[in-house]
Amino acid sequence: RIDARDLSSKEILKKKGLHPTAACSLDPRAGNLRDLAVAHRMRVYFGNKEAEAVAKRMEAPFMILGWGPGDEFGHVAPASRQGGFETVSNWARNLSFLSVGSRDYQPKKIKALDPATIDWEDRRRTVSFMLSDGDNTGWILNDFWDAPFFGAKKTGTFPMGFSAALAQMAQMAPVVVDQLAETQSDHVSLIEFSGGYFYPDLFAEERNNQKKILRTYAQQLNTQMKKTGARLLCFIVHDSASREAKTAYRIFAEELETLEGMLVMDYAPYNKGMGKIYWAERPDGIEIPAVTANFCMWENMRRPNAGGPERIAKFIQSDATRHSWTAVNAWSNFSGKKGVGAAAACIDQLESDVRVVTPEEMIWRIRMAHNREQTKSFIQRSSK
Description:
By secondary structure, the chain is α/β, with parallel strands linked by helices. Helices cover about 35% and strands about 20% of the residues. It has 14 helices and 15 strands. It has helices at about 10-15, 35-40, 50-55, 75-80, 95-100, 135-140, 165-170, 175-185, 210-230, 245-255, 310-320, 340-345, 360-370, 370-380, and strands at about 20-25, 45, 60-65, 85, 125-130, 160-165, 190-195, 230-235, 260-265, 275-280, 285-290, 295, 305, 325-330, 355. The strands form 2 sheets. Strands 5, 6, 7, 8, 9, 10, 11, 12, 13, 14 and 15 form an 11-stranded mixed β-sheet that branches. A 4-stranded parallel β-sheet has the order 2-1-3-4, with helices on one face. Strand 8, helix 10 (about 245-255) and strand 9 (about 260-265) form a beta-alpha-beta unit. Helix 11 crosses helix 12 (about 340-345) and helix 13 (about 360-370) packs across helix 14.
């Protein structure tokens, strides 16, 4: 403990005892994390200039609790460049209580698709849908469970993926992982949202040991993914085609032992990569795909392969890609249809020559098309 009553901010920062790898961006209007910040001796700040200054003082990789003001790139990018990630947790409550004992608690594991059960004789084109913004831990702890999201009546009636803060929940509130596992239907894929919000291609670029920091972070994420049972990883990159992004794909493939595939979104628009697939090799020679979004369902967006349910359906029908996927923006409203309802409205307009599958099945079909013998051998070994 430090008696800081007579100390300036600069003097406090010089004192020992502040958490080296966790800080709190505390919105004065939403003080839900004050108790957690005090309990863990975090630096507390608010504002994008302050975010950059704090990030430079942290030991990487590090975590930012809370959320910043204004344009999200303005505070996520500075943290990313210094080797930090955000938890989007300004509306997360009672974490001091919910996180107690999480280090030693084994939550129930989410269900994963057994690729041996896929009907490989069905050779129709496939498309998948994934709901965005699962990195938002405040949302996962609150409205995510209501309609029109995970709690929608149509959830589970057709194949769909939900990005989710699984690794963070395993530490913040592991009972939430239990609840997800207990309520997950066979038509639902739960996809790890990168263990936090950051841009892997910018991660620690302003530190001398950038690749080592990203690898350390991936190793930490590996521990949590094995704990939750997550097999797919999604994330947002600044530029999915960049050399730095390709390096990140490779590091994730090398370090995440349970990883079967990656779903990649660009910062803006989500589908900037237009379905491009990048392959990263694991140490055992197995190739893991990083698949960029083909389509982006986003309110009032008039870009190629982007827009509302009707536009997306037309784009999907006219697209020749064998296996594609659509990023569904969680906050967009299409004449009263949001989230699961928006995806359902798009699916209702597809012809029978296009089959809707979970993101997990999409990944396995892409792997089978890319390297049939390797994929068949892997499935046979895994099913024994």
